[in-house]
Amino acid sequence: MQVVAWTGWIWIAVAGILAAGAAAVLWLASASKLKGVRAELSATRAALEQQRTIDPLTGLSTLAAFDEALDAIAAQCDQRGAEASVLLIEIDHFRSVSEAYGAGAGDEALRNVGERLRAVGKDRQPAARLGGDTFAMAVPGNALAAQSMANAIAAALGEPMRTAAGTLRLGCSIGIVSYPGQPRRMLLDKASMALQDAKALGRGSHVVFDPSQESARRDSARVLHDLRGALENRELFLHFQPKIDATSLQITAAEVLVRWRHPATGVVSPDRFIPLAERYGLIEPIGRWVIEEACRQAAIWRDQGMRMRIAVNISGDQMRQADFVDHLASTLQRHNMQPSRFTCEITESIAMADTSATRATFERLRLLGVHVSIDDFGTGHSSLASLKRLPAAELKIDRAFVTDLATSEHARFIAETIVKMAHALDMRVVAEGVENRQQRDLLVAMGCDELQGYLFARPMPAEDLSMWSARDQGSNAAAFRPSIFAETAPNRIN
Ligand code: G
Ligand code: G
Ligand code: MN
Prior knowledge:
Layout: H1 2-53, H2 63-80, E1 84-91, H3 94-101, H4 103-120, E2 127-131, E3 134-140, H5 143-158, E4 161-163, E5 166-168, E6 172-179, H6 187-201, E7 206-208, H7 214-230, E8 236-245, E9 251-262, E10 266-268, H8 270-279, H9 283-303, E11 310-314, H10 316-320, H11 324-334, E12 342-347, H12 348-352, H13 356-368, E13 371-377, H14 384-389, E14 394-397, H15 399-403, H16 409-424, E15 428-431, H17 437-446, E16 450-451, H18 462-470
Parallel strand pairs: 6-7, 9-11, 11-12, 12-13, 13-14, 14-15, 15-16
Antiparallel strand pairs: 1-3, 1-6, 2-3, 4-5, 8-9, 8-16, 9-10
Helix pairs in contact: 3-4, 4-5, 9-11
Bound molecules: guanosine-5'-monophosphate (2 copies) and manganese (II) ion.
The site of one guanosine-5'-monophosphate has 11 residues, from strand 9, helix 8 and strand 11.
Protein backbone atom coordinates (compact mmCIF):
# COMPACT_ATOMS: atom_id res chain seq x y z
CA MET A 1 0.00 0.00 0.00
CA GLN A 2 2.76 2.26 1.06
CA VAL A 3 4.74 1.48 -2.06
CA VAL A 4 1.73 2.25 -4.07
CA ALA A 5 1.30 5.42 -2.11
CA TRP A 6 4.94 6.28 -2.67
CA THR A 7 4.94 5.68 -6.34
CA GLY A 8 1.65 7.46 -6.39
CA TRP A 9 3.35 10.50 -4.87
CA ILE A 10 6.17 10.18 -7.31
CA TRP A 11 3.71 10.11 -10.13
CA ILE A 12 1.97 13.08 -8.77
CA ALA A 13 5.29 14.86 -8.40
CA VAL A 14 6.30 13.93 -11.93
CA ALA A 15 2.96 15.00 -13.23
CA GLY A 16 3.31 18.22 -11.27
CA ILE A 17 6.77 18.85 -12.66
CA LEU A 18 5.56 18.05 -16.14
CA ALA A 19 2.60 20.33 -15.75
CA ALA A 20 4.80 23.11 -14.42
CA GLY A 21 7.19 22.58 -17.31
CA ALA A 22 4.39 22.63 -19.77
CA ALA A 23 3.02 25.72 -18.12
CA ALA A 24 6.46 27.28 -18.24
CA VAL A 25 6.79 26.39 -21.90
CA LEU A 26 3.34 27.68 -22.55
CA TRP A 27 4.08 30.80 -20.56
CA LEU A 28 7.31 31.32 -22.40
CA ALA A 29 5.59 30.81 -25.72
CA SER A 30 2.79 33.19 -24.92
CA ALA A 31 5.25 35.74 -23.57
CA SER A 32 7.25 35.72 -26.78
CA LYS A 33 4.03 35.87 -28.75
CA LEU A 34 2.98 38.83 -26.71
CA LYS A 35 6.29 40.42 -27.33
CA GLY A 36 5.73 39.83 -31.03
CA VAL A 37 2.31 41.38 -30.83
CA ARG A 38 3.73 44.28 -28.93
CA ALA A 39 6.44 44.79 -31.51
CA GLU A 40 3.88 44.56 -34.22
CA LEU A 41 1.73 47.06 -32.42
CA SER A 42 4.51 49.52 -32.02
CA ALA A 43 5.51 49.05 -35.66
CA THR A 44 1.93 49.76 -36.66
CA ARG A 45 1.90 52.75 -34.40
CA ALA A 46 5.14 53.99 -35.94
CA ALA A 47 3.74 53.41 -39.40
CA LEU A 48 0.61 55.31 -38.49
CA GLU A 49 2.67 58.10 -37.02
CA GLN A 50 4.77 58.16 -40.15
CA GLN A 51 1.65 58.29 -42.25
CA ARG A 52 0.37 61.14 -40.16
CA THR A 53 3.56 63.15 -40.27
CA ILE A 54 5.43 62.25 -43.46
CA ASP A 55 4.20 62.72 -47.00
CA PRO A 56 4.89 59.41 -48.76
CA LEU A 57 5.50 60.98 -52.17
CA THR A 58 8.12 63.55 -51.19
CA GLY A 59 9.25 62.53 -47.71
CA LEU A 60 8.49 66.06 -46.50
CA SER A 61 6.26 66.78 -43.50
CA THR A 62 2.50 66.60 -43.80
CA LEU A 63 0.17 69.42 -42.89
CA ALA A 64 -0.34 67.87 -39.42
CA ALA A 65 3.39 67.71 -38.69
CA PHE A 66 4.00 71.17 -40.12
CA ASP A 67 1.27 72.56 -37.92
CA GLU A 68 2.97 71.03 -34.88
CA ALA A 69 6.31 72.42 -36.01
CA LEU A 70 4.69 75.86 -36.19
CA ASP A 71 3.55 75.48 -32.57
CA ALA A 72 7.11 74.80 -31.52
CA ILE A 73 8.49 77.64 -33.64
CA ALA A 74 5.93 80.10 -32.26
CA ALA A 75 6.78 79.05 -28.70
CA GLN A 76 10.46 79.57 -29.42
CA CYS A 77 9.83 82.99 -30.93
CA ASP A 78 7.81 83.98 -27.85
CA GLN A 79 10.62 82.85 -25.60
CA ARG A 80 13.40 84.62 -27.46
CA GLY A 81 11.48 87.61 -28.76
CA ALA A 82 12.36 86.46 -32.30
CA GLU A 83 10.43 86.40 -35.57
CA ALA A 84 9.72 83.58 -37.98
CA SER A 85 7.99 83.44 -41.35
CA VAL A 86 5.96 80.93 -43.28
CA LEU A 87 6.14 80.55 -47.05
CA LEU A 88 3.22 78.91 -48.82
CA ILE A 89 4.34 77.72 -52.23
CA GLU A 90 2.16 76.61 -55.13
CA ILE A 91 3.48 75.29 -58.42
CA ASP A 92 2.23 77.37 -61.36
CA HIS A 93 0.13 75.60 -63.96
CA PHE A 94 0.86 72.25 -62.37
CA ARG A 95 -2.34 70.76 -63.74
CA SER A 96 -1.19 71.39 -67.27
CA VAL A 97 2.11 69.65 -66.46
CA SER A 98 0.21 66.57 -65.36
CA GLU A 99 -2.10 66.79 -68.34
CA ALA A 100 0.71 67.23 -70.82
CA TYR A 101 3.16 64.72 -69.39
CA GLY A 102 0.92 62.26 -67.52
CA ALA A 103 0.30 61.67 -63.81
CA GLY A 104 3.52 59.67 -63.44
CA ALA A 105 5.61 62.60 -64.58
CA GLY A 106 3.53 64.80 -62.29
CA ASP A 107 4.49 62.67 -59.27
CA GLU A 108 8.08 62.64 -60.36
CA ALA A 109 8.05 66.43 -60.60
CA LEU A 110 6.49 66.78 -57.14
CA ARG A 111 9.13 64.48 -55.67
CA ASN A 112 11.76 66.59 -57.35
CA VAL A 113 10.22 69.76 -55.92
CA GLY A 114 10.45 68.15 -52.47
CA GLU A 115 14.15 67.42 -52.96
CA ARG A 116 14.85 70.96 -54.16
CA LEU A 117 12.97 72.51 -51.26
CA ARG A 118 14.98 70.42 -48.85
CA ALA A 119 18.20 71.44 -50.58
CA VAL A 120 17.30 75.16 -50.56
CA GLY A 121 16.39 74.93 -46.87
CA LYS A 122 19.65 73.01 -46.28
CA ASP A 123 17.52 70.37 -44.52
CA ARG A 124 17.25 72.76 -41.57
CA GLN A 125 14.00 74.57 -42.35
CA PRO A 126 10.81 72.60 -41.76
CA ALA A 127 9.35 71.92 -45.19
CA ALA A 128 6.03 70.27 -45.96
CA ARG A 129 3.78 69.18 -48.77
CA LEU A 130 0.35 70.30 -47.68
CA GLY A 131 -1.44 68.48 -50.48
CA GLY A 132 -1.57 68.51 -54.28
CA ASP A 133 1.00 70.97 -55.58
CA THR A 134 1.07 73.15 -52.46
CA PHE A 135 4.18 73.20 -50.30
CA ALA A 136 5.21 75.16 -47.23
CA MET A 137 8.38 76.14 -45.47
CA ALA A 138 9.09 77.89 -42.18
CA VAL A 139 12.15 80.10 -41.88
CA PRO A 140 13.62 82.15 -39.06
CA GLY A 141 13.43 85.93 -39.40
CA ASN A 142 11.01 88.51 -40.76
CA ALA A 143 9.27 88.82 -44.13
CA LEU A 144 12.40 90.29 -45.70
CA ALA A 145 14.37 87.16 -44.87
CA ALA A 146 11.47 85.09 -46.17
CA GLN A 147 11.54 86.99 -49.45
CA SER A 148 15.14 86.08 -50.11
CA MET A 149 14.20 82.47 -49.37
CA ALA A 150 11.30 82.86 -51.82
CA ASN A 151 13.72 84.03 -54.51
CA ALA A 152 16.00 81.08 -53.81
CA ILE A 153 13.07 78.65 -54.04
CA ALA A 154 11.83 80.17 -57.29
CA ALA A 155 15.35 79.94 -58.74
CA ALA A 156 15.75 76.32 -57.62
CA LEU A 157 12.41 75.22 -59.09
CA GLY A 158 13.17 77.13 -62.30
CA GLU A 159 16.21 74.96 -62.99
CA PRO A 160 15.48 72.40 -65.70
CA MET A 161 14.02 69.22 -64.27
CA ARG A 162 14.52 65.97 -66.11
CA THR A 163 11.67 63.51 -65.88
CA ALA A 164 10.94 60.35 -67.83
CA ALA A 165 8.55 62.36 -69.97
CA GLY A 166 11.00 65.15 -70.80
CA THR A 167 12.61 68.25 -69.34
CA LEU A 168 10.42 70.63 -67.33
CA ARG A 169 10.92 74.04 -65.82
CA LEU A 170 8.54 74.83 -63.01
CA GLY A 171 7.43 78.22 -61.80
CA CYS A 172 5.81 78.91 -58.47
CA SER A 173 3.78 81.53 -56.64
CA ILE A 174 4.52 82.20 -52.98
CA GLY A 175 2.54 83.79 -50.14
CA ILE A 176 4.48 84.96 -47.08
CA VAL A 177 3.34 85.71 -43.55
CA SER A 178 5.31 86.41 -40.36
CA TYR A 179 4.94 85.58 -36.67
CA PRO A 180 4.26 87.30 -34.30
CA GLY A 181 2.90 89.88 -36.80
CA GLN A 182 -0.01 87.50 -37.31
CA PRO A 183 -1.42 85.25 -34.60
CA ARG A 184 -0.18 81.66 -34.60
CA ARG A 185 -3.59 80.18 -35.52
CA MET A 186 -3.98 82.52 -38.52
CA LEU A 187 -0.57 81.92 -40.11
CA LEU A 188 -1.65 79.44 -42.78
CA ASP A 189 -4.89 81.31 -43.58
CA LYS A 190 -3.09 84.60 -44.07
CA ALA A 191 -0.30 82.95 -46.06
CA SER A 192 -2.99 81.50 -48.27
CA MET A 193 -4.51 84.96 -48.85
CA ALA A 194 -1.09 86.31 -49.79
CA LEU A 195 -0.66 83.31 -52.12
CA GLN A 196 -3.96 84.12 -53.86
CA ASP A 197 -2.73 87.68 -54.36
CA ALA A 198 0.56 86.39 -55.74
CA LYS A 199 -1.27 84.19 -58.23
CA ALA A 200 -3.49 87.08 -59.28
CA LEU A 201 -0.44 89.30 -59.76
CA GLY A 202 0.84 86.95 -62.36
CA ARG A 203 2.43 83.58 -61.90
CA GLY A 204 5.96 83.57 -60.60
CA SER A 205 5.38 86.29 -57.98
CA HIS A 206 5.68 86.28 -54.24
CA VAL A 207 3.55 88.48 -52.00
CA VAL A 208 3.86 89.31 -48.31
CA PHE A 209 0.54 89.32 -46.48
CA ASP A 210 -0.62 92.91 -46.03
CA PRO A 211 -3.26 93.41 -43.34
CA SER A 212 -4.19 96.86 -44.74
CA GLN A 213 -5.47 95.10 -47.87
CA GLU A 214 -7.97 93.04 -46.00
CA SER A 215 -10.86 95.48 -46.24
CA ALA A 216 -10.13 96.07 -49.93
CA ARG A 217 -10.15 92.31 -50.34
CA ARG A 218 -13.51 92.04 -48.63
CA ASP A 219 -14.88 94.76 -50.94
CA SER A 220 -13.53 92.92 -53.96
CA ALA A 221 -15.06 89.69 -52.73
CA ARG A 222 -18.44 91.38 -52.52
CA VAL A 223 -18.12 92.96 -55.97
CA LEU A 224 -17.06 89.61 -57.37
CA HIS A 225 -20.00 87.86 -55.80
CA ASP A 226 -22.40 90.42 -57.28
CA LEU A 227 -20.63 90.41 -60.64
CA ARG A 228 -21.37 86.72 -61.03
CA GLY A 229 -25.06 87.61 -61.04
CA ALA A 230 -24.72 90.73 -63.19
CA LEU A 231 -25.00 89.01 -66.56
CA GLU A 232 -27.89 86.84 -65.51
CA ASN A 233 -29.75 89.79 -63.99
CA ARG A 234 -29.12 91.92 -67.08
CA GLU A 235 -27.29 94.57 -65.10
CA LEU A 236 -24.61 95.21 -67.75
CA PHE A 237 -25.23 97.76 -70.47
CA LEU A 238 -23.25 99.58 -73.12
CA HIS A 239 -22.30 103.16 -73.75
CA PHE A 240 -20.91 104.42 -77.04
CA GLN A 241 -18.48 107.26 -77.63
CA PRO A 242 -17.88 108.57 -81.15
CA LYS A 243 -14.48 108.96 -82.79
CA ILE A 244 -14.45 112.02 -85.03
CA ASP A 245 -12.48 112.54 -88.25
CA ALA A 246 -10.16 115.47 -87.49
CA THR A 247 -10.67 117.20 -90.83
CA SER A 248 -14.16 116.32 -92.00
CA LEU A 249 -15.53 116.14 -88.42
CA GLN A 250 -17.58 113.12 -89.40
CA ILE A 251 -18.09 110.19 -87.10
CA THR A 252 -15.68 107.42 -88.02
CA ALA A 253 -16.60 104.91 -85.33
CA ALA A 254 -18.22 104.37 -81.95
CA GLU A 255 -16.15 102.97 -79.12
CA VAL A 256 -18.11 100.53 -76.99
CA LEU A 257 -17.71 100.96 -73.23
CA VAL A 258 -19.36 98.51 -70.88
CA ARG A 259 -21.14 99.66 -67.71
CA TRP A 260 -22.62 97.81 -64.76
CA ARG A 261 -25.68 99.09 -63.02
CA HIS A 262 -25.30 97.56 -59.56
CA PRO A 263 -28.71 97.29 -57.87
CA ALA A 264 -27.41 98.69 -54.57
CA THR A 265 -24.36 100.83 -55.31
CA GLY A 266 -25.24 102.31 -58.71
CA VAL A 267 -23.10 102.34 -61.84
CA VAL A 268 -19.73 100.63 -61.41
CA SER A 269 -16.82 101.59 -63.69
CA PRO A 270 -15.22 98.91 -65.85
CA ASP A 271 -11.90 100.04 -64.36
CA ARG A 272 -13.17 98.40 -61.20
CA PHE A 273 -14.91 95.27 -62.43
CA ILE A 274 -13.02 94.26 -65.59
CA PRO A 275 -9.80 93.49 -63.64
CA LEU A 276 -11.85 91.41 -61.19
CA ALA A 277 -13.59 89.62 -64.04
CA GLU A 278 -10.18 88.84 -65.53
CA ARG A 279 -8.79 87.62 -62.28
CA TYR A 280 -11.67 85.30 -61.51
CA GLY A 281 -12.48 83.89 -64.90
CA LEU A 282 -15.57 85.96 -65.67
CA ILE A 283 -14.06 87.91 -68.56
CA GLU A 284 -15.05 85.28 -71.13
CA PRO A 285 -18.85 85.50 -70.60
CA ILE A 286 -18.70 89.27 -70.10
CA GLY A 287 -16.48 89.82 -73.15
CA ARG A 288 -18.79 87.67 -75.25
CA TRP A 289 -21.82 89.55 -74.06
CA VAL A 290 -20.20 92.89 -74.96
CA ILE A 291 -19.34 91.72 -78.48
CA GLU A 292 -22.79 90.22 -78.99
CA GLU A 293 -24.55 93.34 -77.74
CA ALA A 294 -22.29 95.68 -79.73
CA CYS A 295 -22.97 93.72 -82.94
CA ARG A 296 -26.69 93.70 -82.22
CA GLN A 297 -26.61 97.49 -81.87
CA ALA A 298 -24.53 97.93 -85.01
CA ALA A 299 -27.08 95.81 -86.91
CA ILE A 300 -29.90 98.02 -85.63
CA TRP A 301 -28.05 101.14 -86.80
CA ARG A 302 -27.33 99.53 -90.14
CA ASP A 303 -31.00 98.62 -90.59
CA GLN A 304 -31.81 102.26 -89.88
CA GLY A 305 -29.42 103.25 -92.64
CA MET A 306 -26.50 104.18 -90.37
CA ARG A 307 -23.33 102.36 -91.15
CA MET A 308 -21.42 102.52 -87.94
CA ARG A 309 -17.97 101.11 -87.33
CA ILE A 310 -17.78 99.81 -83.78
CA ALA A 311 -14.67 99.50 -81.65
CA VAL A 312 -14.66 97.06 -78.75
CA ASN A 313 -12.03 96.96 -75.99
CA ILE A 314 -10.48 93.50 -75.74
CA SER A 315 -8.70 92.46 -72.57
CA GLY A 316 -5.54 90.39 -72.41
CA ASP A 317 -7.32 87.31 -71.13
CA GLN A 318 -9.80 87.51 -74.00
CA MET A 319 -6.89 87.68 -76.46
CA ARG A 320 -5.49 84.52 -74.94
CA GLN A 321 -8.71 82.52 -75.20
CA ALA A 322 -8.21 79.81 -77.77
CA ASP A 323 -11.58 80.32 -79.45
CA PHE A 324 -11.74 84.12 -79.21
CA VAL A 325 -11.38 84.75 -82.95
CA ASP A 326 -13.72 81.88 -83.94
CA HIS A 327 -16.31 83.23 -81.62
CA LEU A 328 -15.91 86.79 -82.90
CA ALA A 329 -16.18 85.54 -86.49
CA SER A 330 -19.38 83.63 -85.84
CA THR A 331 -20.94 86.56 -83.95
CA LEU A 332 -20.14 88.93 -86.82
CA GLN A 333 -21.61 86.48 -89.30
CA ARG A 334 -24.76 85.96 -87.26
CA HIS A 335 -25.38 89.71 -87.31
CA ASN A 336 -24.46 89.99 -90.93
CA MET A 337 -21.63 92.37 -90.16
CA GLN A 338 -18.59 92.91 -92.31
CA PRO A 339 -15.47 92.17 -90.28
CA SER A 340 -13.85 95.30 -91.74
CA ARG A 341 -16.38 97.37 -89.81
CA PHE A 342 -15.28 95.95 -86.50
CA THR A 343 -12.30 97.23 -84.51
CA CYS A 344 -10.59 95.43 -81.64
CA GLU A 345 -8.98 97.94 -79.27
CA ILE A 346 -6.08 96.20 -77.59
CA THR A 347 -3.86 98.02 -75.11
CA GLU A 348 -0.26 98.53 -76.05
CA SER A 349 1.07 96.47 -73.15
CA ILE A 350 -1.04 93.46 -74.15
CA ALA A 351 -0.36 93.86 -77.85
CA MET A 352 3.38 93.94 -77.20
CA ALA A 353 3.40 90.95 -74.88
CA ASP A 354 5.08 88.85 -77.51
CA THR A 355 3.71 85.48 -76.52
CA SER A 356 2.91 82.82 -79.05
CA ALA A 357 -0.76 82.98 -78.02
CA THR A 358 -1.11 86.72 -78.74
CA ARG A 359 0.89 86.44 -81.94
CA ALA A 360 -1.39 83.67 -83.22
CA THR A 361 -4.47 85.69 -82.29
CA PHE A 362 -3.21 88.77 -84.17
CA GLU A 363 -2.59 86.66 -87.23
CA ARG A 364 -6.08 85.20 -87.09
CA LEU A 365 -7.63 88.64 -86.56
CA ARG A 366 -5.79 89.80 -89.67
CA LEU A 367 -7.10 86.83 -91.67
CA LEU A 368 -10.62 87.51 -90.45
CA GLY A 369 -10.27 91.09 -91.70
CA VAL A 370 -11.19 93.00 -88.55
CA HIS A 371 -9.27 96.14 -87.59
CA VAL A 372 -6.82 96.22 -84.75
CA SER A 373 -6.27 99.43 -82.81
CA ILE A 374 -3.47 99.78 -80.28
CA ASP A 375 -5.05 101.50 -77.27
CA ASP A 376 -3.42 103.67 -74.57
CA PHE A 377 -0.38 104.06 -76.79
CA GLY A 378 2.73 105.68 -75.34
CA THR A 379 2.52 104.13 -71.91
CA GLY A 380 4.10 100.80 -72.80
CA HIS A 381 7.37 99.80 -74.34
CA SER A 382 6.91 99.36 -78.05
CA SER A 383 9.73 99.22 -80.47
CA LEU A 384 9.24 100.34 -84.02
CA ALA A 385 10.12 96.85 -85.13
CA SER A 386 7.49 95.17 -82.98
CA LEU A 387 4.85 97.70 -84.05
CA LYS A 388 5.64 97.02 -87.67
CA ARG A 389 4.99 93.32 -87.19
CA LEU A 390 1.48 93.88 -85.83
CA PRO A 391 -1.40 93.98 -88.27
CA ALA A 392 -2.69 97.18 -86.64
CA ALA A 393 -4.55 99.88 -88.55
CA GLU A 394 -4.73 102.45 -85.78
CA LEU A 395 -2.85 103.86 -82.79
CA LYS A 396 -4.62 105.68 -79.96
CA ILE A 397 -2.48 108.27 -78.17
CA ASP A 398 -2.95 107.74 -74.45
CA ARG A 399 -5.14 110.29 -72.73
CA ALA A 400 -2.31 111.31 -70.40
CA PHE A 401 -0.38 112.96 -73.25
CA VAL A 402 -3.49 114.67 -74.61
CA THR A 403 -4.34 116.07 -71.18
CA ASP A 404 -0.87 117.61 -70.83
CA LEU A 405 -0.57 118.90 -74.39
CA ALA A 406 -1.02 122.59 -73.61
CA THR A 407 1.23 122.60 -70.56
CA SER A 408 3.96 120.08 -71.28
CA GLU A 409 6.46 120.24 -74.07
CA HIS A 410 7.33 116.67 -73.30
CA ALA A 411 3.73 115.53 -73.90
CA ARG A 412 3.64 117.53 -77.15
CA PHE A 413 6.84 115.94 -78.30
CA ILE A 414 5.54 112.44 -77.53
CA ALA A 415 2.23 113.07 -79.29
CA GLU A 416 4.06 114.42 -82.34
CA THR A 417 6.40 111.46 -82.39
CA ILE A 418 3.51 109.00 -82.17
CA VAL A 419 1.74 110.71 -85.09
CA LYS A 420 4.91 110.60 -87.23
CA MET A 421 5.66 107.02 -86.31
CA ALA A 422 2.10 105.88 -87.02
CA HIS A 423 2.05 107.62 -90.39
CA ALA A 424 5.40 106.14 -91.30
CA LEU A 425 3.84 102.74 -90.64
CA ASP A 426 0.72 103.66 -92.58
CA MET A 427 -1.51 103.66 -89.50
CA ARG A 428 -4.17 106.15 -88.49
CA VAL A 429 -3.79 108.04 -85.22
CA VAL A 430 -6.62 108.70 -82.81
CA ALA A 431 -6.25 111.08 -79.86
CA GLU A 432 -8.40 110.09 -76.90
CA GLY A 433 -9.52 112.28 -74.03
CA VAL A 434 -9.75 115.53 -76.03
CA GLU A 435 -11.45 117.92 -73.64
CA ASN A 436 -10.81 121.42 -75.00
CA ARG A 437 -10.26 123.31 -78.21
CA GLN A 438 -6.65 124.06 -77.47
CA GLN A 439 -5.91 120.34 -77.38
CA ARG A 440 -7.98 119.82 -80.51
CA ASP A 441 -6.14 122.54 -82.42
CA LEU A 442 -2.72 121.24 -81.43
CA LEU A 443 -3.67 117.69 -82.43
CA VAL A 444 -5.08 118.79 -85.76
CA ALA A 445 -1.91 120.77 -86.43
CA MET A 446 0.17 117.68 -85.71
CA GLY A 447 -1.76 115.76 -88.32
CA CYS A 448 -3.72 113.53 -85.96
CA ASP A 449 -6.40 111.71 -87.99
CA GLU A 450 -9.20 111.24 -85.50
CA LEU A 451 -10.29 112.76 -82.21
CA GLN A 452 -12.31 111.40 -79.34
CA GLY A 453 -13.26 113.00 -76.03
CA TYR A 454 -15.64 115.02 -73.94
CA LEU A 455 -15.15 118.06 -76.22
CA PHE A 456 -17.19 116.23 -78.81
CA ALA A 457 -19.26 113.72 -76.88
CA ARG A 458 -19.22 111.69 -73.70
CA PRO A 459 -19.89 107.97 -73.78
CA MET A 460 -23.69 107.67 -74.09
CA PRO A 461 -26.50 105.17 -74.70
CA ALA A 462 -27.03 104.01 -78.27
CA GLU A 463 -30.26 105.95 -78.77
CA ASP A 464 -28.60 109.15 -77.58
CA LEU A 465 -25.78 108.66 -80.03
CA SER A 466 -28.24 108.33 -82.91
CA MET A 467 -29.91 111.57 -81.84
CA TRP A 468 -26.62 113.29 -81.14
CA SER A 469 -25.38 112.50 -84.60
CA ALA A 470 -28.52 113.95 -86.17
CA ARG A 471 -28.47 117.17 -84.15
CA ASP A 472 -26.45 120.27 -84.74
CA GLN A 473 -23.64 120.06 -82.23
CA GLY A 474 -23.00 123.80 -81.87
CA SER A 475 -19.64 125.47 -81.93
CA ASN A 476 -17.65 122.68 -80.28
CA ALA A 477 -18.16 120.38 -83.16
CA ALA A 478 -17.89 123.39 -85.48
CA ALA A 479 -18.80 122.11 -88.89
CA PHE A 480 -19.88 118.75 -87.56
CA ARG A 481 -21.60 116.81 -90.29
CA PRO A 482 -22.88 113.47 -89.18
CA SER A 483 -21.67 110.73 -91.41
CA ILE A 484 -23.48 108.20 -89.36
CA PHE A 485 -26.04 107.97 -92.17
CA ALA A 486 -23.36 107.30 -94.73
CA GLU A 487 -20.49 104.94 -95.26
CA THR A 488 -17.76 105.52 -92.72
CA ALA A 489 -14.36 106.14 -94.21
CA PRO A 490 -12.80 102.75 -94.89
CA ASN A 491 -9.67 102.30 -92.81
CA ARG A 492 -6.66 100.52 -94.09
CA ILE A 493 -5.93 96.92 -93.29
CA ASN A 494 -2.35 95.74 -93.40
O1 G B 1 -15.45 104.41 -69.98
P1 G B 1 -14.38 104.21 -69.12
O2 G B 1 -14.51 104.51 -67.67
O3 G B 1 -15.45 103.53 -69.12
O4 G B 1 -13.58 102.81 -69.27
C1 G B 1 -12.60 102.48 -68.34
C2 G B 1 -11.68 101.39 -68.86
O5 G B 1 -12.42 100.20 -69.06
C3 G B 1 -11.03 101.76 -70.18
O6 G B 1 -9.66 101.41 -70.07
C4 G B 1 -11.72 100.85 -71.16
O7 G B 1 -10.82 100.46 -72.17
C5 G B 1 -12.15 99.67 -70.32
N1 G B 1 -13.32 99.03 -70.88
C6 G B 1 -14.51 99.61 -71.13
N2 G B 1 -15.36 98.71 -71.68
C7 G B 1 -14.68 97.53 -71.78
C8 G B 1 -15.02 96.23 -72.29
O8 G B 1 -16.10 95.95 -72.78
N3 G B 1 -14.06 95.27 -72.22
C9 G B 1 -12.83 95.53 -71.71
N4 G B 1 -11.96 94.53 -71.68
N5 G B 1 -12.48 96.74 -71.23
C10 G B 1 -13.40 97.75 -71.27
O1 G C 1 -8.51 102.75 -72.06
P1 G C 1 -9.56 103.33 -72.96
O2 G C 1 -8.95 104.18 -74.03
O3 G C 1 -10.50 102.32 -73.56
O4 G C 1 -10.38 104.30 -72.03
C1 G C 1 -11.47 105.02 -72.43
C2 G C 1 -11.85 105.78 -71.19
O5 G C 1 -11.69 107.19 -71.38
C3 G C 1 -13.27 105.58 -70.77
O6 G C 1 -13.24 105.51 -69.38
C4 G C 1 -13.94 106.85 -71.20
O7 G C 1 -15.10 107.11 -70.43
C5 G C 1 -12.85 107.86 -70.92
N1 G C 1 -12.93 109.12 -71.66
C6 G C 1 -13.36 109.32 -72.93
N2 G C 1 -13.24 110.63 -73.29
C7 G C 1 -12.68 111.27 -72.23
C8 G C 1 -12.31 112.63 -71.99
O8 G C 1 -12.42 113.51 -72.84
N3 G C 1 -11.78 112.90 -70.77
C9 G C 1 -11.62 111.96 -69.83
N4 G C 1 -11.11 112.31 -68.66
N5 G C 1 -11.96 110.67 -70.02
C10 G C 1 -12.49 110.32 -71.21
MN1 MN D 1 -10.31 102.03 -75.63
